[in-house]
Amino acid sequence: MKSLVLDSGKLYIRDKDVPTTVGDDDVEIKIHTVGICGSDVHYYKHGRIGPFVVKEPMILGHEASGIITKVGKNVKHLAVGDRVCMEPGIPNLSSIQSKSGFYNLDPEVRFWATPPIDGCLRESVVHPAAFTFKLPDHVSFTEGAMVEPLAIGMQSATKAQIKPGDIALVMGAGPIGVMTALSALAGGCAEVIICDVVDDKLSIAAQYQGIHTVNSKTTNLVDVVKEFTDGNGVDVLFECSGSPNAIAQLTDYVAPNGTVVLVGMPISPTPIDIVSAQAKEITFKTIFRYVNMYPKTIRLLASGKINLKPLISAVYKFPQAVEAFDRAASGNPQDVKIIIEME
Ligand code: ZN
After folding, report:
1. Would the N or C end of the chain have less CB density within 10 A of its end CB?
2. Could you tell me the distance, in angstroms and rounded to a whole number, from the CA of residue 115 to the centre of ligand 1?
């Protein structure tokens, strides 16, 4: 099947053998749109993320939407022709974690484009129907593909247990930072402050009502937080930068009894000021991908409460997929999401 294959650090559009048998609980999906993720780019540039090393040729891509072309005989909620998006991680549904409701924490989860599992930048995929979700008519294929990164923001906002009127700080204005800010607003935050050290990234976030941007290199973030919170600190802080410097200082910004959600992944073990956190009884939470977030994320997109259009930076057709990846790898700070359409 025609696919975008990462082989020894280079990308090729070429044929690759992939399973095509549709099981009783599966659907076959003709891929329509795929978003390029930071992790895809990382595998392209570095060949590994932590313990996950690309040893064999691997198809990239995990943020996808498409059209159902076949359904297994047990599948009731989907039909041929349905527009859908797919959760890229397939857990073992019999694992202790899955049975406890945390299928994202199943160590056996098979996640698209995480070696050695092939991703979805190919003509079609066979996928469990249980992890395939119908898109409402007015949610586009591009929005459908962006459900995946948005679900991480949704998981973060859900873990934070936001209360109506809370004020949040998001550290890091990359795609996940902005999507977390949008999820926090949808979850009831009155205001979200987002900080970064790159103005081009902040200018994209600044297009949204309710998001206040701060360049933490040129402006004193503590002062801004005080101004927004009557000197008290933010109710919720989302750490999306993964930067050790940001993480070392995060207790300065949080209100007593506030919550910190650690979203960004630092590349190595990173210190946190524990005593400062104790003096405020800060609650720390972490997230790993998302669990049961697709239906809620799709509902919010359908409701119009989250608008992803300002985050779509460029759309490429599949024959230009390598070019699209080279652009993503160049790290232009004005680019948020680069999209590939299969035809
Ligand atoms: Zn992603």
Report:
1. C
2. 14
